[in-house]
Design goal:
By secondary structure, the chain is α+β, with helices and mostly antiparallel strands. The chain folds into two domains: 50 residues, no CATH class; 164 residues, Putative cyclase (Glucose Oxidase, domain 1). Helix content is 21%, strand content 23%. It has eight helices and twelve strands. Strands 6-10-9-8-7-11-12 form a seven-stranded mixed beta barrel. Strand 9, helix 8 and strand 10 form a beta-alpha-beta unit. Helix 7 packs parallel to helix 8. The chain is globular, with a radius of gyration of 21 Å. The chain starts with 5 loop residues before the first strand and ends with a strand. The N terminus is likely disordered. The structure holds 2-acetamido-2-deoxy-beta-D-glucopyranose (3 copies).
């Protein structure tokens, strides 16, 4: 259904940073958990429990990004089998752990660049590095879409989104059905139909469109609805957002893609700030 690039990120820089870090390790302020032998170190580190959060700052910051794991949903049929591989390993003699990532660019929470569905834009270099951070960051609305329909022109009209609103995240039946949490791609997801996309382009000031499944466009209109959004090269599409347990309303939206030159998509970290 979609064009998927595979990315191999190999960061020599990280190795350099890790080497320089060893100069300042450990000291009284930051004691190492591993100050004696390997075996007792292993036991101690087993009791270290990192905290994983969805919300920060007493609810002020809400993470609306899905975690990337081997199980994160991706466009059918690609899976994230080799997401992370340890190429250097502290348990077998290396001074540091050093992982390599292999990531389909349209997995989990991600952004589409104009080159995703329009070949001329891809060739001309309209990649994720050219996306406007001013569109991806600023005030916007999280709205609930009626649950009995895909996003048609009629549905868009009924949402009464005021002129001047530049960023909208559309929460749909996909969130209620927990579709992003499932292991298999489900083509019955809710998304924009071509006429809904066209209505948005013609009648609103929305430049950031976010939805809660891997594609903003319903499967039946996958290509035409994407093209309607992307052809003007102004609208940015963020897909696969985690909108569970968030109140509809006005937020400051912040989304940052990677600066992947030549890429028509990128993983993206999105947060809402109250
Ligand atoms: C150490 O572990 C890494 C990653 O698992 C592996 O690629 C490498 O071959 C191992 N080296 C030795 C000497 O076992
Ligand atoms: C480093 O590698 C060891 C396996 O050799 C693993 O147990 C440990 O979790 C790794 N640490 C990180 C941060 O990945
Ligand atoms: C939305 O469209 C898909 C096909 O693209 C369909 O399977 C699904 O039932 C529709 N959802 C609703 C709520 O109409």
């Amino acid at each position: 259904m979609r064009v998927l690039l595979t990315l191999l990120v190999y960061t020599q820089l990280l190795a350099t940073i890790l080497f320089s870090v060893s100069i300042s390790l450990p000291n009284e302020a930051y004691p190492s958990p591993c100050d004696d032998d390997e075996a007792s170190c292993f036991e101690k580190t087993q009791t270290l429990q990192p905290i994983r959060r969805e919300i920060y700052g007493n609810g002020r910051i809400i993470d609306i990004t899905h975690r990337l794991t081997q199980k994160t949903l991706c466009g059918h049929p690609i899976k994230l089998v080799d997401l992370l591989t340890l190429s250097s390993n502290m348990r077998n003699g290396s001074l540091y752990n050093f992982s390599v990532m292999k990531l389909p660019l349209h997995a989990g929470t991600h952004v589409d660049a104009p080159g995703h569905m329009i070949a001329d834009y891809f060739d001309a270099g309209f990649d994720v590095d050219t996306l406007d951070l001013d569109v991806l960051n600023g005030p916007g609305l999280l709205v609930d879409v009626p649950r009995d329909s895909n996003i048609t022109a009629e549905v868009m009209k009924s949402l009464n989104i005021p002129k001047g609103v530049r960023r909208v995240l559309f929460r749909t039946l996909n969130t209620d059905r927990g579709l992003m949490w499932k292991e298999e791609f489900d083509s019955s997801f809710v998304g924009f139909m071509k006429d809904g996309a066209q209505w948005l382009v013609d009648n609103t000031d929305i430049k950031l469109v976010g939805t809660d499944y891997l594609s903003v466009a319903a499967a039946d209109d996958a290509i035409p609805a994407h093209v309607v959004f992307l052809e003007g090269r102004e609208i940015i599409l963020v897909e696969g957002l985690k909108l569970d347990d968030v109140k509809a309303g006005l937020y400051n939206i912040h989304c940052l893609p990677l600066r992947l030159v030549g890429a028509e998509g990128s993983p993206i970290r999105c947060i809402l700030i109250k």
